[in-house]
Amino acid sequence: MRIALPIWEDKITPLLDTASRLLVLNEEGGVKSDRFEVSLDGMDLHTRCVRIQALEIQILICGAVSRLFSGMLH
User: What pLDDT shows up at residue 30?
Assistant: First the structure.
């Protein structure tokens, strides 16, 4: 399973739209197998959406996502 947490200034950001990075964790059988970060700096919402979809994230943990961005991700 692939889990992502949006990061801004070394903290989990409350709004996905403003995240500068994504921390991505791969988990297999309840055990973390690896982790990596993906930069989102300078990307517009469409480009961010394409990037996140390409990562095949199953779980995204954040406080909120704007309605516009949420619609684009679905």
Answer: 76
